[in-house]
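Structure, all two chains, one model.
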Amino acid sequence: MTERFELAIVGAGPAGMAAALEAKARGLSAVVLDEQPRPGGQIYRRAEARDARLEAALGAEYAHGMALTEKFLAGGVAYRPNTTLWDLSPELRLSVLRDNRAGEIDAAHVILATGAMERPVPVRGWILPGAMSVGAAQILLKTTGAVPDKPAVLAGSGPLLYLLAAQYLAAGVEVRALVETQPGANYRAAAPYLLPALWQRKLLLKGAAMLRDLRKHGVKRWQGASSLAVEGNDACTALTFAVNGKRERIETELVLLHEGVIPNVHVTMAINGGHDWDATQLCWRPRLDAWGATSVDGVSVAGDGGGIWGAEAAEHTGRIAALGAAQRLGKISEEARDRAASHARASLARLRGARQFLDLLYKPAPGQRLPPDDVIVCRCEEVTAGTLREVARIGAIGLTQAKTYTRCGMGPCQGRMCGPTVAALVADERKMPEASVPPYRPRAPYKPVTIGALAAAVDADTPPPDASAGAH
Amino acid sequence: MFRRLPSADAGARLRLTIDGVAVELRAGETVAAALFLAGSKAGRTTPVSGTPRGPYCMMGVCFDCLVQIDGEGNRQACMIEAREGMVVTRQMGARALGGKAES
């Protein structure tokens, strides 16, 4: 069965929810599809399940997310959870998968609010059980109130490292150590941007409070660490790393890794939208106009999927994209659109002021993106950095060639977990700028679909074929 | 590797089994959370080398949490909320097709 809406929004995080509420207010018929069972995106994961003590540990932003989620659920916008987009056609037909059954939605405009993912951290042993991402551990905290049963080591770079540590401490959970990988040079590069960041005093003060918290609880912080390795045979037993010219070793069963987040560009790449390389955030970003419109007619992007600016900014870009769609579809005039967007634009400019400082301060160290030869880069097909360097040397100039030679990116994650590293390795080995290494070109289905799911949709739609047809 | 905070112990309870062992969960929690709370570090072994893997991203990106749920293989444990009576089997190697293991 094919449904029709004026606007289809993919993703129910802050950008998608804000876009939906704005679209509704402007008289658009809208539907929100989300892969997750509950709204909120990753940032406000399970924010509608209120728990006072957990809320206190998670902080004020999470409470804001709960309010937004409640408003969204009460807002009367069609909402389809557990629904995965697996194809978006040039005619704006969305092929989706819900509860293992395929379906279709036609739209006049599409807003992709598919958010961000954590940058893969391909250190030695990152494939071992007991090594997982900081974001993953935070999701367990938000959805299940689950915390490490023995003190964990948090390793890598970025504000999320301190945030999760602070949340654990607030919940009375011990943290073993922080192993920080941002190089000293980052502090010098970021310093000139501290002044503009002062406009975001709230954010900086929050950061300072988190660092004070760590000190107060006596959490050991290692700074300038490099060549991280998770040790263990069948599961993590320790983290080792180089620091101050020595190799250190911390025994632990749980290592949480993080090197910042990057836009989830799988769909914008698949529909062949234009992208630009962001040399500070070290990631691809879809090329967007002032209303979030991509180079593909009728498709916009809102939120961190268009570049990492954070959850608060995502609400503003969500509103702006919805206003752009409403004007494009003739619901409001250009003047009304511009007037309605002015507040969101002013807030965005203020929020973006602090970003350059944070991006430069926590920019991943080159070594964290260029693992030694024996490290598995493609987790699905188990292709090592050494193999990828070799194919780059013998002629792979981009990710498609590397894939043809080695099967990297051909497993179920479809290159999401290896793409950034394969590109960094090819660029490094061939002495090319990363911006000139062609990324993977994802194809439909964007997530694995079984033949059974497709067949279930056909069964529901069409009468059984004429039994005699097979005889001819 | 993980335990539940006492404050998070509210909510309707349900039970599923992982490799025949009962695990108690709260409504709205995922199969991947069940794996962790049950003390399973690895939910599967890989089809390529047979080495153990556990959930890595918890948000549907990495596909390292694949398990068999109610007889169907290659299900993403981190994306699926637990239901009463669910039968979860850790997936060793490639998924089983039609109830038989692929070699």
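Chain A touches chain B through 51 residues (CB under 8 Å).
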